[in-house]
Amino acid sequence: MDDLNALATLLTKPEPPAEAITRSRGRLQDRMRGRARRRIGWLVPALTLATAAAAVVAVLVTGVIKPAGVPTSGREVLLMAAASAERTPQGSGTYWHVKREVRDVDSSRQESWITRDGRRWSVGDPGNPPGVVVPDPDPLMLKGAEVSIEDLERLPADPEALKARLTGLQGRESAMTASEQRGDPLFSLVTLISELPTPPEVRSAAFRALATIPGVESTGAVEGGQELRFPDPDIGWEIKLVVDPETAQVTRTTYLPGNDGSVMLSERFIWVTAGWTDQPPR
Q1: Hey, how many other C-beta atoms are within 10 angstroms of the C-beta on 15?
Q2: Domain assignment of residue 173, yes or no
Q3: Which one in 30, 47, 92, 248 has a CA-CA gap of 20 to 30 Å to 13?
């Protein structure tokens, strides 16, 4: 744990590089088949992980000393984020606010606000008046099951125990992917670190659990943090996830499981911000 905290202090913020994103719409449509509810969604920025001066070295959690200019592995990025999540206060406020945005095209966005007792409002959902905040009956959802903030607080803070709990969680099969029905925890873990009001110790455990997923890779620093790639456990489509290890925030992704049970897919990156606020829905 001390190694992780020490490592996280070495993070700095470089100028974000430009990147080109291409993805087949046909494969996205294939990916959506068999899902209960799907919305094409949208995300927001965070910070970046850096390369320090060439002379600086970092002792990684693997025990390997490597120059800071050498790209870290996906596992190392996730463990850095786990250390940051554990020491980051949960925050306070009346509403858990999530904003999703797809940029560079039509600046489409969705926002939702939910109180600790489960009342929700949203704006930008398909079928609702554009730009109008409306009451939303959808509860918080995890793996096809309705959950409360108290349920999230009772989740294990140990990564293996957390994976076991998620594997055993009983939700509606119609609201789960094939891999979730088989007990694969990947998408549930991503939901915990992206859109749900997960407490710090559980977020940390979720990052550590993700670090054990086979095939996770880091492609290096991009705008918003470090870009990670996960193999899709259902059809092998590559999922891109940008994580800021310094703030333990998911900042961009091409696959976003929503806190209302929806799944958002985009051939472009979706930006996301999530946190507690006292600002009312507007």
Answers
A1: 8
A2: yes
A3: 92
0.85 exceeded by pTM? no
CB-based burial label for 143 (10 Å; 0-12, 13-18, 19+): buried
For position 33, what pLDDT does the model report? 36
Domain of residue 115, residue span: 2-277
Number of domains making up the chain: 1
- Mean pLDDT for each consecutive 10-residue tract of the chain (282 residues)? 45 38 33 37 31 30 42 90 94 95 77 96 89 94 94 98 94 81 90 96 98 94 95 82 96 88 83 95 92
The secondary structure of 229-241 as a DSSP string is EEE-TTT-PEEEE
Q: What is the pLDDT of residue 50?
A: 31
Tell the burial category of 10 from Cβ atoms under 10 Å away from its Cβ (0-12, 13-18, 19+).
middle
Q: Which residues pair with 113 in a beta bridge?
A: 97, 121
| Secondary element (H or E) of residue 191 | helix 186-194
Is 282 within a domain? no
175 is a domain residue = yes
Question: Is 244 inside a domain boundary?
Answer: yes
Residue 209 identity: A
Report the run of H or E that residue 145 belongs to, with start and end: strand 145-146
Query: How far is the C-alpha of 225 from the C-alpha of 46, rounded, in Å?
Result: 7
Cβ atoms within 10 A of the Cβ of 218, count?
19
Query: What's residue 202's pLDDT?
Result: 98
- CA angle at residue 103 from 185 to 35, to 5 degrees? 35
